[in-house]
Design goal:
The chain has helices at residues 45-48, 72-87, 107-119, 130-137, 178-193, 199-209, 240-264, 267-276, 290-298, 311-328; strands spanning 4-9, 13-18, 22-28, 31-34, 40-43, 58-61, 64-65, 68-69, 96-101, 124-129, 148-153, 158-164, 167-174, 195-196, 220-227, 233-239, 278-281, 302-304. Helix 5 (178-193) runs antiparallel to helix 7 (240-264) and helix 7 packs across helix 9. It starts with a strand and ends with a helix. Strand 17, helix 9 (290-298) and strand 18 (302-304) form a beta-alpha-beta unit. It has three domains: 4-133 and 311-328, 2-Layer Sandwich (Nucleotidyltransferase, domain 5), CATH 3.30.420; 142-175 and 251-304, ATPase, nucleotide binding domain (Nucleotidyltransferase, domain 5, 2-Layer Sandwich), CATH 3.30.420.40; 178-246, ATPase, substrate binding domain, subdomain 4 (Actin, Chain A, domain 4). It has ten helices and 18 strands.
Amino acid sequence: MAASIGIDLGTASILVYIKGKGVVLKEPSVVAFDRDTNKIKAIGEDARQMLGRTPGNIVAVRPLRQGVISDYTVTEKMLKYFIQKAMGKKSFRKPIVSVCVPSGVTEVEKKAVEDATWEAGARDVKIIEEPIAAAIGAGIDISKPCGNMIVDIGGGTADIAVISLGGTVVSTSIKIAGDNFDEAIVRYMRKKHNLLIGERTAEDIKIKIGSAFKRPEVDTMDVRGRNLVTGLPKTVTVTSEETEEALRDTTAQIVEAVHSVLEKTPPELAADIADRGIVLTGGGSLLRGLEELIEHKTGINTMTAEEPMTCVAIGTGKFVEFMSGRRDD
């Protein structure tokens, strides 16, 4: 029996799920390569350490942008590396691989993901839409005729979908997610504090004190960067209230997308969602106050899945089991 693995091919990180073992690998989707020799220097966490810190000839890149392949060759090599790392060197049989893609991708983009997975050494490839994978991973029984709303916020895209009877009824995919939160913080720091910071520092701020909704307690953090006026290193203290201000426009766009999907939802399913609530998945849903913000704007109970980071990977892997189970019947 060939191993079946599920891959959450994310803009920020790649997770690999193996049947019977769970999520065996979680690494950043970053590749560092040498421009002079065109050789890959590092993949995953080792490459992430190099972001913004490399000499001219070595570049650390993210081959996936907004959930879509932007550099085909690098993505293929990265996939091959992660599949081999997850399977172990002793594996002789090629695995059956299911990969998830954002719900808004075109057929061409879907084909690129499929081809890259074949080239990386898969025996069979299944493509699954992200919201469906997220719902399965969050433990929702999607086979029933009942409306469930999933908001999956990743690194590059946010997918919002209403699922019933195992399929998507209404969905939208917007290119606003975790990376945009980081960019909004970088812009805010430059404008408000005349401080230039990198992506990694912005991500640290988001994780430690980032907030999408006014909170009773105020957290602070010391941030180091380069002063744009003097050109010298400088440290400023940032509060969680400031991050709420910095992220306001970006989070509003996600709320707007949730609102537009609710507007298009058939009344029977809308009633189900009002009863059951909205489920948030994906790394972006870990931003504090996002649940409260969506609940405040829609009036619908909103909760985050138990393991939001791994939901999509688990769901993608279980989708293969679900399909093979149906084939065995």
